[in-house]
Amino acid sequence: MKTMDPMRPVFFVKIDQKIFVSSFIRSVNLEFLKSLGVKTVINLTGSLGRPNEKAFKGSGINYVTINLDLPYEKKYEEILRNIRGCTVIHCGAGRTSSVVAVAYLAAKGVPVQKAIETVNAKIGLSLDLWPQDIALFKRLREISLERKRKAPMVRAAEKRVVRLKRGSVRG
Q1: To 10 degrees, the CA torsion angle through 16, 18, 21, 26?
Q2: Is 103 within 8 Å of 140 (Cβ atoms)?
Q3: Model confidence pTM above 0.85
Q4: 121: CB partners within 8 A, 6+ apart
């Protein structure tokens, strides 16, 4: 019989190299998270997770509590903006953090249905997403793809500006 690591959260799943989803994170999980190279923990439990902020101070892991009163889309923007390095997204049981993982993958440019399938396969459940979730995730994906299309043009323009500045310095 397999025993549970007491330092590991009850529900803890690696989605990709950068994102883990988890049930409630406690200060007792700190060393386990450090051993994985976690740099950020995003709390989706609101004030329930606030006591953890003290335990994580000075640990080298950034602990971010998301304001659950934010409007729907702003909440996702705030979460995605705070993903830095290896990140654990946690909520009470793991469902909400799994939905956020789908948003994260979509924002990376993964087709929404593929993102849903990936997360479902990793967590061993079938997430039922609301139509507003799917619509938002599709928009996140489109924004990501648009940024990727524009990136080479932006880099080329930046290089031209640098060359112009160098030319004006010589002249």
Answers
A1: 150
A2: yes
A3: no
A4: none
Q: Checking phi first, is residue 124 left (phi over 0); if not, alpha (psi -120 to 50) or beta?
A: left
For residue 91, give both structure tokens: 């909520």
Q: What is the 3-state secondary structure (H, E, C) of the chain?
A: CCCCCCCCCCCEEECCCCEEEECCCCHHHHHHHHHCCCCEEEECCHHHHHHHHHHHCCCCCEEEECCCCCCHHHHHHHHHHCCCCCEEEECCCCHHHHHHHHHHHHHCCCCHHHHHHHHHHHHCCCCCCCHHHHHHHHHHHHHHHHHHHHHHHHHHHHHHHHHHHHHHHHC
Burial (CB count within 10 angstroms: exposed 0-12, middle 13-18, buried 19+), residue 102: buried
Please write the tens of the pLDDT for every residue from 92-145: 766 677 788 888 888 888 898 888 888 888 888 777 788 888 888 888 888 888
Quick: pLDDT tens for 24-81. 888 889 999 999 999 999 988 877 767 778 888 899 999 999 888 888 888 888 888 8
Shortest CA distance to 41 belongs to which of 69, 22, 14, 16? 22
pLDDT, position 27: 83
